[in-house]
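Record 1 of the preview.
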Amino acid sequence: MIEEGRKAVDARIRQVRTKALAEGNDNLDVRALSLLHDNCWNGEAGDFLIYHLRLNPYDEWNTMLVAGDVRTASILDMPFCTEEILQHLARTGLPVILGLRDKLRAAHDEVQRTHEFGRFQEIYDDTVTRVKRLGQMFGAGLVETYQAWRQRQADGRSAPR
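->
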């Protein structure tokens, strides 16, 4: 499951680079960004995401192709990722994932007591949806940050000298 996802992401990167090369753009730094930072996919959080929720870190909801530098971002009109952004993703994602894990554990304990298995399935499905929404929210934030940067660049170029 995970290896196939990794291969799919690598294929997406190759496709972007091949298209850029065909348009005369070489040496572009395109990479995959895990919207849920690596610290969410390791340790107990990773066990929860992969083995309990059956999520794949390489699925499209969690991976975004980004530029590794400003030049690539400008050529491909693609968000770029800075160390500051990576640190933000690392700080904010893990506590949310662990909180969702704890809520699902509590729901599981409640089901063991009440035998309301249908309710647990609803909570499980909601947890999967919330995890994916978190990744999507991080991706949308990255795009908005890039668009604001691009607008500031355009405003600076068009300003009178």
